[in-house]
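Board notes (copied after class):
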Amino acid sequence: MSDNQDLDLKEEKEEVKEPEPINEDYKEQYLRALADYQNLVKQTQKEKEEFFRYALADFLGDILPVYDNLKISVANLTEEEQRSPWVEGVKHVLKQFKDILEARGVEEIKTIGEAFDHATMEALEGEGEAVEREVKTGYKLQGKVIFPAKVIVKK
Protein backbone atom coordinates (compact mmCIF):
# COMPACT_ATOMS: atom_id res chain seq x y z
CA MET A 1 0.00 0.00 0.00
CA SER A 2 1.07 3.44 -0.62
CA ASP A 3 1.64 5.99 2.04
CA ASN A 4 -1.34 7.93 0.79
CA GLN A 5 -3.66 4.99 1.27
CA ASP A 6 -2.27 4.31 4.76
CA LEU A 7 -2.89 7.92 5.66
CA ASP A 8 -6.47 7.73 4.35
CA LEU A 9 -7.14 4.59 6.41
CA LYS A 10 -5.74 6.21 9.55
CA GLU A 11 -7.96 9.24 9.00
CA GLU A 12 -11.04 7.03 8.50
CA LYS A 13 -10.26 5.09 11.71
CA GLU A 14 -9.84 8.32 13.62
CA GLU A 15 -13.16 9.57 12.26
CA VAL A 16 -14.89 6.38 13.33
CA LYS A 17 -13.26 6.37 16.76
CA GLU A 18 -14.39 9.87 17.64
CA PRO A 19 -17.94 9.76 19.00
CA GLU A 20 -20.18 12.63 18.08
CA PRO A 21 -20.82 14.97 20.96
CA ILE A 22 -24.24 14.49 22.58
CA ASN A 23 -26.59 17.15 21.57
CA GLU A 24 -27.62 18.90 24.80
CA ASP A 25 -30.93 19.99 23.28
CA TYR A 26 -31.99 16.40 22.68
CA LYS A 27 -30.95 15.41 26.17
CA GLU A 28 -32.94 18.30 27.69
CA GLN A 29 -35.98 17.47 25.58
CA TYR A 30 -35.78 13.83 26.66
CA LEU A 31 -35.56 14.77 30.34
CA ARG A 32 -38.53 17.13 30.02
CA ALA A 33 -40.60 14.49 28.24
CA LEU A 34 -39.70 11.96 30.93
CA ALA A 35 -40.67 14.40 33.70
CA ASP A 36 -43.94 15.20 31.92
CA TYR A 37 -44.73 11.49 31.64
CA GLN A 38 -44.00 10.90 35.33
CA ASN A 39 -46.21 13.86 36.27
CA LEU A 40 -48.99 12.49 34.06
CA VAL A 41 -48.79 9.10 35.79
CA LYS A 42 -48.98 10.76 39.23
CA GLN A 43 -51.88 13.02 38.18
CA THR A 44 -53.81 10.08 36.72
CA GLN A 45 -53.36 8.10 39.94
CA LYS A 46 -54.53 11.08 42.00
CA GLU A 47 -57.61 11.51 39.78
CA LYS A 48 -58.47 7.81 40.15
CA GLU A 49 -58.27 8.09 43.94
CA GLU A 50 -60.44 11.23 43.95
CA PHE A 51 -63.01 9.53 41.71
CA PHE A 52 -63.10 6.52 44.01
CA ARG A 53 -63.60 8.76 47.07
CA TYR A 54 -66.37 10.66 45.34
CA ALA A 55 -68.10 7.46 44.20
CA LEU A 56 -67.81 6.01 47.71
CA ALA A 57 -69.19 9.19 49.30
CA ASP A 58 -72.11 9.15 46.85
CA PHE A 59 -72.83 5.51 47.68
CA LEU A 60 -72.58 6.23 51.40
CA GLY A 61 -75.16 8.99 50.97
CA ASP A 62 -77.58 6.29 49.86
CA ILE A 63 -76.66 3.53 52.31
CA LEU A 64 -75.95 5.33 55.60
CA PRO A 65 -79.57 6.41 56.19
CA VAL A 66 -80.59 2.75 55.93
CA TYR A 67 -77.88 1.83 58.44
CA ASP A 68 -79.01 4.63 60.78
CA ASN A 69 -82.66 3.57 60.58
CA LEU A 70 -81.74 -0.03 61.36
CA LYS A 71 -79.76 1.13 64.41
CA ILE A 72 -82.66 3.29 65.59
CA SER A 73 -85.17 0.48 65.18
CA VAL A 74 -83.07 -1.89 67.31
CA ALA A 75 -82.38 0.78 69.95
CA ASN A 76 -86.09 1.50 70.42
CA LEU A 77 -87.12 -2.09 71.22
CA THR A 78 -88.24 -3.14 74.68
CA GLU A 79 -85.92 -5.22 76.87
CA GLU A 80 -87.96 -8.34 76.14
CA GLU A 81 -87.76 -7.71 72.41
CA GLN A 82 -84.00 -7.07 72.74
CA ARG A 83 -83.52 -10.69 73.90
CA SER A 84 -85.28 -12.14 70.87
CA PRO A 85 -83.04 -14.37 68.71
CA TRP A 86 -84.19 -12.44 65.68
CA VAL A 87 -83.07 -9.14 67.21
CA GLU A 88 -79.75 -10.72 68.18
CA GLY A 89 -79.29 -11.66 64.51
CA VAL A 90 -80.03 -8.09 63.44
CA LYS A 91 -77.46 -6.83 65.98
CA HIS A 92 -74.84 -9.11 64.42
CA VAL A 93 -75.70 -7.75 60.98
CA LEU A 94 -75.33 -4.20 62.34
CA LYS A 95 -71.89 -5.11 63.73
CA GLN A 96 -70.83 -6.52 60.36
CA PHE A 97 -72.14 -3.39 58.68
CA LYS A 98 -70.14 -1.19 61.06
CA ASP A 99 -66.96 -3.27 60.56
CA ILE A 100 -67.24 -2.98 56.77
CA LEU A 101 -67.77 0.78 56.97
CA GLU A 102 -64.75 1.16 59.26
CA ALA A 103 -62.63 -0.95 56.90
CA ARG A 104 -63.55 1.50 54.11
CA GLY A 105 -62.49 4.49 56.20
CA VAL A 106 -65.93 5.53 57.46
CA GLU A 107 -66.23 6.51 61.10
CA GLU A 108 -69.06 7.84 63.21
CA ILE A 109 -68.61 11.28 64.73
CA LYS A 110 -68.65 10.99 68.50
CA THR A 111 -71.04 13.49 70.08
CA ILE A 112 -72.42 12.33 73.42
CA GLY A 113 -70.43 13.81 76.28
CA GLU A 114 -68.27 15.79 73.87
CA ALA A 115 -67.88 19.52 73.50
CA PHE A 116 -69.83 21.01 70.60
CA ASP A 117 -67.62 21.18 67.50
CA HIS A 118 -68.77 23.47 64.67
CA ALA A 119 -66.65 21.58 62.16
CA THR A 120 -68.30 18.19 62.74
CA MET A 121 -71.69 18.97 64.27
CA GLU A 122 -74.81 20.92 63.47
CA ALA A 123 -76.82 22.27 66.41
CA LEU A 124 -80.57 21.91 65.93
CA GLU A 125 -81.49 23.41 69.30
CA GLY A 126 -79.86 25.24 72.15
CA GLU A 127 -76.74 27.25 72.61
CA GLY A 128 -73.79 26.15 74.60
CA GLU A 129 -70.63 24.13 74.61
CA ALA A 130 -71.76 20.60 75.55
CA VAL A 131 -73.80 18.14 73.50
CA GLU A 132 -76.93 17.05 75.33
CA ARG A 133 -78.41 14.66 72.76
CA GLU A 134 -77.65 13.31 69.33
CA VAL A 135 -80.53 13.52 66.86
CA LYS A 136 -78.71 12.08 63.84
CA THR A 137 -75.34 10.41 63.63
CA GLY A 138 -72.63 12.16 61.63
CA TYR A 139 -69.94 10.44 59.57
CA LYS A 140 -66.40 11.03 58.36
CA LEU A 141 -64.81 9.40 55.35
CA GLN A 142 -61.05 9.07 55.79
CA GLY A 143 -61.05 11.94 58.26
CA LYS A 144 -63.19 14.29 56.15
CA VAL A 145 -66.73 15.08 57.32
CA ILE A 146 -69.28 13.81 54.80
CA PHE A 147 -72.37 14.18 57.03
CA PRO A 148 -72.27 16.41 60.12
CA ALA A 149 -73.86 15.07 63.30
CA LYS A 150 -77.13 16.75 64.18
CA VAL A 151 -77.24 17.47 67.92
CA ILE A 152 -79.01 19.35 70.66
CA VAL A 153 -76.69 21.34 72.90
CA LYS A 154 -77.21 22.26 76.56
CA LYS A 155 -78.51 25.74 77.20
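Comment from the instructor: The longest strand covers residues 131-136. The helical segments are 3-17, 24-75, 79-82, 85-103.
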